[in-house]
């Protein structure tokens, strides 16, 4: 096709992925974004609670190892001088004391509290044998970090955050997500103050003290239809158009909405694909925003299985000047009353202010993951639908990876449809 303006692209969902691909294609194609909510931003959106930006899901800091993502965000969307750069300061509530995250560089701190445990963690780490073969996530932790780190920290924390037994989970998602020291850097950590080198050691947060500033900048000049829930998708063979909700026609569709529900929109999807979509597993989260005591930490991880929350996100530390607010997070549906009660056992949490429950937060990499995601994605590819994003690809993507995937897909689509 020569005149790309005539190619109408429907983008399903106005989260980070839909907004990014919309920005990247809007000058070359006729773009319309269909979003079920009255606002854009999806998972990353905040709501206002007494003037504080409350992340109803997680707490969203931004950084990236991808140069093209950084230049897209700071060059085209929200200039670098509109962001604060914040140093990560994360702690782990380990037994009855706190140590720095990542734990494998905190042997000296553990030694101050429990000499025997520090020795055991060290010996097991140095004796661990990694042959590159892992039956499941539990074995991956044992071979990468040694038995003691696995049983003392990684397995309890991951059992909590995935609400699943690491023995029944795939390890495939984890490599990019955790700092993995080799024996040399672990040893250096023992004798010096070496820390890990993750891309999130420093991160950016908008100077407005609200992530919505970034999301609104990402939505600028985009054609978005709000309050529009996509419920059916059909292909009209005569016109060669996709018809959404029996009324809106598009030449191409890019999906960013969750794959498990998307398949319900196709009345003719084969039974095995529908079954695969139904078997995709995810976890939702419940959050409470708290007024807290003062802290300079950015996150606290809590592996203790007897304590409801697995993590505090000290959102007030993202702000400038800092404020005393944190978000406590737990997997699954938990009421305000239950969460407020659980928080009473920690003096750090002063007053619960707001509560939210969300259905989609974490993709679960269970034993069916590979087979089910392949079946659904192959189906979409065969019928010519592009799919993108955290739940659009059923991946553990951060915002920057969603943007990276949008950049790559925009090139694929431009190359394919703008070639004369
Ligand atoms: C707890 C938690 C903490 C996180 N913390 C960070 C962090 O600190 N830093 C970071 O970079 N990333 C973080 N992330 C990841 C980040 O939130 C995601 O990568 C990103 O927001 C996903 O964007 P998306 O557009 O792919 O999906 P979504 O945000 O889910 O967007 C999908 C959109 O589709 C819409 N939609 C759904 N169904 C329909 C339908 N039928 N019709 C029309 N519209 C529909 C939804 O309303 C939504 O707006 C975190 C995620 C979680 C869960």
From TrEMBL:
Molecular function GO terms recorded: flavin adenine dinucleotide binding; UDP-galactopyranose mutase activity
GO CC terms: cytosol
SUPFAM superfamilies cross-referenced by the UniProt entry: Nucleotide-binding domain
Pfam families assigned to the protein according to its UniProt record, in alphabetical order: NAD_binding_8
Superkingdom of this protein's organism: Bacteria
Record-given protein name: UDP-galactopyranose mutase
PANTHER family, per the entry: UDP-GALACTOPYRANOSE MUTASE (PTHR21197)
């Amino acid at each position: 096709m020569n005149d790309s303006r005539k190619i109408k692209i429907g983008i399903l969902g106005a989260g980070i992925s839909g907004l990014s691909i919309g920005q990247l294609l809007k000058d070359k194609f006729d773009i319309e974004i269909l979003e079920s909510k009255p606002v854009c931003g999806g998972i990353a959106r905040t709501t206002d609670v007494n003037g504080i930006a409350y992340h109803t899901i997680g707490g969203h800091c931004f950084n990236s190892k991808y140069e093209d993502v950084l230049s897209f965000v700071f060059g085209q969307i929200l200039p670098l001088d509109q962001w604060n750069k914040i140093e990560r300061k994360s702690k782990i509530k380990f037994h009855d004391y706190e140590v720095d995250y990542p734990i494998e560089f905190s042997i000296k701190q553990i030694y101050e509290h429990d000499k025997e445990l520090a020795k055991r963690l060290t010996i097991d780490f140095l004796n661990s044998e990694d042959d590159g073969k892992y039956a499941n996530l539990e074995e991956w932790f044992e071979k990468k970090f040694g038995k003691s780190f696995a049983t003392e920290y990684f397995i309890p924390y991951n059992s909590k955050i995935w609400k699943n037994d690491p023995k029944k989970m795939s390890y495939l998602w984890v490599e990019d997500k955790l700092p993995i020291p080799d024996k040399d850097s672990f040893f250096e950590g023992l004798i010096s103050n070496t820390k890990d080198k993750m891309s999130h050691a420093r991160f950016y947060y908008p100077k407005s003290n609200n992530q919505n500033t970034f999301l609104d900048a990402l939505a600028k000049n985009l054609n978005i239809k709000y309050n529009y829930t996509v419920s059916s998708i059909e292909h009209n063979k005569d016109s060669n158009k996709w018809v959404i909700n029996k009324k809106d026609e598009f030449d191409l569709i890019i999906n960013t909405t969750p794959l498990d529900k998307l398949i319900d929109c196709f009345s003719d999807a084969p039974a095995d694909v529908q079954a695969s979509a139904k078997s995709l597993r995810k976890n939702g989260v419940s959050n409470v925003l708290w007024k807290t005591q003062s802290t300079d930490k950015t996150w606290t991880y809590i592996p203790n299985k007897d304590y409801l929350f697995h993590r505090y996100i000290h959102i007030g530390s993202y702000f400038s000047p800092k404020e005393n607010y944190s978000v406590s997070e737990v997997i699954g549906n938990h009421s305000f009353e239950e969460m407020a009660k659980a928080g009473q056992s920690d003096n750090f949490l002063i007053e619960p202010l707001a509560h939210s429950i969300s259905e989609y937060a974490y993709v679960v990499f269970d034993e069916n993951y590979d087979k089910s995601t392949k079946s659904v994605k192959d189906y979409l590819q065969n019928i010519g639908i592009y799919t993108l994003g955290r739940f659009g690809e059923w991946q553990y993507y951060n915002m920057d990876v969603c943007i990276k995937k949008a950049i790559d897909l925009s090139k694929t689509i431009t190359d394919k449809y703008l070639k004369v």
